[in-house]
Amino acid sequence: MSCGFSQADAATIKQTLDGAMDLSIEYPDSVIVGRDFAVSVLIQNNGWEDKQDISFSVQTQDQSIVAKNQTLFIERLSKGGSFGGTLEFSAVPSELGTHYLNVVYSHVLLSNNETPQPTLQKNIALPILLKGAPEVQLNTIAPNSIFPNAEFAFDVEVLSRDIPIRDVTVQILAPSDVVIRGQNSYTYSTIEQNTPLFIRSTIVTNPEEVTSEHKIPFEVIISYLDDSGDEQTTSKSVSLLLRPRTFMEFTTDGGLWLGGFFLAPYISIGTIVGIPAGALFSLMIHRLQKKKKGKRKK
Question: Are 218 and 172 in contact (CB under 8 A)?
């Protein structure tokens, strides 16, 4: 089990009580079951009189949260003084959802630093969301369909919502119909909680033409150490449609396929107008001939 606020974002409650006593409570707004967590308290006497019998106690609502130490107490706190501490708890496996810690705070004001006044008491509820296993999301961004002899972007986003993760390895596994340009495995020492990590990769389809469309599978696998030091693995599968190339196709890098001719994005206007013109005319004649043959067959 891990202790502290690493498993969730911290929430803070600040209140000013009678006698100018400033109370600050910091606690996690969500906790993963099976983890330890802490509630931190700071009490400051900003009034003119001393206070005595200062007590800060936390009571659990049910057995979902177990206290290791429940009470902070100090006999006397002079004006301008401060006092604080940490109370530790464990979130045991139980019903998920919002549970409450009940805070009971009290102090006695000393009038003229001598005469005790009636005890002041304040009740405060701390809502804590108990969550299941930490969630690490894998999201992919890719075109719905791809065609032969071209390049396409295949992006991966990793997001750990609940905890920071360490010793991270991300692998992108591609089918035999394509290759991944450059590396297909990435390593990171740490990915912080709620901080998305983006990986941009490029897939290149084989030059061989395909006669019919079919889906090809990709798999993204991430392995990491969680906040307890345990090794975890998450994966996601995604399928892309591999289809025949149409007469005119634009590539992601700005290129253009016209039939069997490819116009690179860096070709000048003069080259496009001059060189492919005859080729385009031939392609058009060829397509008209094919249409006529098709009509005769009907």
Answer: yes
